[in-house]
Amino acid sequence: MTEKKYESLPNNYLKSVSFEIRFVPLLIIQDEIRKFQKEIRQEYPKLEKGFQIAGVSSKIQEEFIEWVFTSDDGNDVIRMGMAKIAFISRVYSTFNDYWRKLEKIIKTFIDVFQITEFTRIGFRHVNSVPLKGKKINPEEFLKWFKSLIQEDALKKFPPFTFSIDYRKEFDNYKTATRNSFGLGSDGKLFYQIDIDSYIEAKTKEKEIKNHINKLHELNNDEFYRNVTDDFIKKLKQGDMEEI
């Protein structure tokens, strides 16, 4: 695995890194979940069980059962469903470190469930940069934002956020990006860029590593396409007052 530009930034603004693979729904997931838990329990001892959706019959809900395995510190999470498995890390150091954990999870998953063909692979980066706001007055920002949104909507959807969404395609890969700027629930201004690259195609076990490498590169490239050199310079300096 090659290290990318994220690792050159002294301050880590990656707040969440997520990998997900999907497959045809299989009952073997429910049959063998205890065995899977036994294999990962030492590193992910906490377990919660629930449903991915609400408001439907119990019979239908069985298809949407989800098991959530969490590390002791709460930073790493495995989410298992009848048709997907995802690994989310809230503390990111390097891609190599993330891949080391993920590779072990994938191997355990395949060994237990004997699933070797997948329908979708996705890799998501959520970057959040707090803005000190020397040039931005929060009260003026809220006044401007409230002028655009109906009062009832403001009550339902805090915090106050302005975002731009768009999608791109690169050969068989797709990237969905959301740029957000707003006032968080903590009262502080933020800039967030949420990048989700994925491929929807039949994929064999041996192809996963190449796909995640490509998705990782797409996410990195998309990050740098969305920000200026001056922005990167200020990130390296740890000074966002002028943004």
Beta content comes to: 35-45%
The helix content is 25-40%
Instruction: Provide the structure class.
Output: alpha+beta
Topology as a string of helices (H) and strands (E): EHEHEEEHEHHEEEHH
Distance between the termini: 33 Å
Strand order of the largest sheet: 2-3-4-5-1-6-9-8-7
Q: Biggest sheet, open or closed, and with what strands and sense?
A: 9 strands, antiparallel
* Uncertain parts: none
Number of domains: 1
Count of individual beta strands: 9
Shape: globular
Mean pLDDT value? 81
Question: Given the structure, what is the number of helices?
Answer: 7
Rg to the nearest angstrom?
20 Å
Any overview of this molecule?
The protein has 243 residues and is an alpha+beta fold. It has one domain. 33% of the residues lie in helices and 35% in strands. Helix 1 packs across helix 3 (95-113). The longest helix has 19 residues, at 95-113. The chain is globular. The relative contact order is 0.17. The mean pLDDT is 81.
What's this model, at a glance?
With 243 residues, this protein is an alpha+beta fold. The protein has 7 helices and 9 strands, in the order E-H-E-H-E-E-E-H-E-H-H-E-E-E-H-H.
Sum up the structure in keywords.
9 strands; 243 residues; globular; single chain; 9-stranded antiparallel β-sheet; alpha+beta
Secondary structure blueprint with pairings:
Elements lengths: L13 E9 L5 H13 L5 E6 L6 H4 L3 E6 L5 E6 L2 E6 L5 H19 L3 E15 L6 H9 L4 H6 L3 E11 L2 E11 L5 E16 L3 H19 L2 H9 L6
Antiparallel strand pairs: 1-5, 1-6, 2-3, 3-4, 4-5, 6-9, 7-8, 8-9
